[in-house]
């Protein structure tokens, strides 16, 4: 039998501490290894396969699109892209979208958008405030945004223009805001940082502060979006609306995608400001459309709310 683990060690950069399991197949909440051993999958592709592995509706959409048109570049109009953009806008508080391929990439896009906003409307303000223990991705700029020194240390010097302040400390955010600030960027519930929730009133206070200062509130909903908090978007749980929101992970149930969404007033990109070769291609958008439509029509957020309220049995007794 092929020793896949040995081969991986030979060829792949050692960036991951992997479990000694080689997965070959998935269906619903289960995955199988090369020896046909079955596992219940609590990872879900790291918050990606919210509808389960190889969901038939998503698989059908991918199959059909793969037989029709995969890639055109963004120099042309494509119908799946427009369908997905429309569905996202119809079911959120935001009016414009931009598609890319991953979470880090759309967070970069959101920061670029905020900087364009700062240049155009805030006298050149460029700085983005983020919080400690956050996670926004692995690119250099998102490493600077991510408020975790252990991730930043190996890559110093990092791109300038980010300030990390203490999570759940509204006064620290206020004090860090200056004439150079164009946005505050946060996760609603910190995911990678350890499922850390905000204190009561934190987000409402931040929303009011952003309004008062005229700066943008960027919500990174890459983990909290797609129904995981019990509503389609996490912001609905906190009674606020973002100016900019980023999505990835669960939107495509396994096909790479990322989205920057913005309110009309924050949608300041003009042709040439930003782009992507693969972003928003017909395959990713067909998968995203099928996934999002299924999530909405089958009240998957309601199911998350229901199962999220289950309490653990007392395993000691
Ligand atoms: C909140 C949050 N933002 C951004 C990212 C980065 O996404 P990606 O790995 O697709 O670049 C992650 C990934 O775990 C995340 O949880």
Describe the model.
- The protein has 317 residues and is α/β, with parallel strands linked by helices.
- The protein is built from 11 helices and 10 strands.
- It has a 7-stranded mixed sheet, sandwiched between helices. Strands 1-2-3 form a 3-stranded antiparallel sheet, with no helix packed on it.
- α3 (56-66) runs antiparallel to α10 (282-297) and α4 runs parallel beside α10.
- The protein starts with a helix and ends in a 9-residue tail after the last helix.
- Bound molecules: pyridoxal-5'-phosphate.
- Pyridoxal-5'-phosphate (PLP) binds next to α5.
- Pyridoxal-5'-phosphate binds next to α5.
Give the secondary structure arrangement, pairings included.
Layout: H1 4-11, E1 23-27, E2 30-33, E3 38-40, H2 44-47, H3 56-66, H4 79-90, E4 96-100, H5 103-121, E5 127-131, H6 140-145, H7 149-152, E6 162-165, H8 170-176, E7 181-186, H9 202-213, E8 216-220, E9 244-247, E10 258-262, H10 282-297, H11 300-308
Helix pairs in contact: 3-10, 4-10
Bound molecules: pyridoxal-5'-phosphate (PLP).
């Amino acid at each position: 039998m092929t020793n896949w683990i040995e081969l991986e060690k030979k060829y792949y950069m050692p960036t991951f501490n992997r479990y000694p399991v080689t997965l070959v197949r998935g269906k619903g909440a289960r995955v199988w290894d090369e020896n046909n051993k079955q596992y219940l999958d609590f990872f879900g592709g790291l918050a990606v396969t919210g509808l389960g592995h190889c969901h038939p509706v998503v698989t059908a959409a991918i199959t059909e699109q793969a037989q029709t048109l995969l890639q055109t570049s963004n120099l042309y109009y494509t119908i799946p892209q427009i369908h997905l953009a429309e569905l996202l806008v119809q079911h959120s508080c935001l009016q414009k979208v931009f598609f890319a391929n991953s979470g880090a990439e759309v967070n970069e896009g959101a920061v670029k958008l905020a900087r364009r906003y700062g240049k155009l409307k805030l006298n050149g303000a460029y700085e983005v405030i983020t919080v400690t223990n956050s996670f926004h991705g692995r690119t250099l700029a998102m490493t600077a945004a991510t408020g975790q020194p252990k991730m930043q240390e190996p890559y110093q010097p990092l791109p300038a223009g980010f300030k990390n302040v203490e999570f759940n400390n509204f006064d620290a955010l206020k004090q860090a805001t200056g004439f150079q600030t164009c946005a505050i960027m946060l996760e609603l519930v910190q995911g990678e940082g350890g499922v850390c929730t905000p204190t009561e009133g934190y987000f409402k206070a931040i929303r009011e502060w952003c309004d008062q200062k005229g700066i943008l509130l960027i919500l990174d909903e890459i983990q909290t979006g797609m129904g995981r908090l019990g509503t389609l978007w996490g912001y609905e749980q906190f009674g606020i609306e973002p100016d900019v929101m980023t999505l990835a992970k669960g939107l495509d149930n396994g096909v790479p995608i990322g989205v920057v969404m913005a309110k009309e007033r924050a949608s300041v990109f003009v042709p040439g400001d930003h782009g992507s070769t693969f972003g928003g291609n017909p395959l990713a958008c067909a998968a995203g459309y099928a996934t999002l439509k299924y999530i909405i029509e089958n009240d998957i957020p309601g199911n998350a709310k229901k199962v999220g309220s289950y309490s653990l049995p007392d395993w000691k007794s």
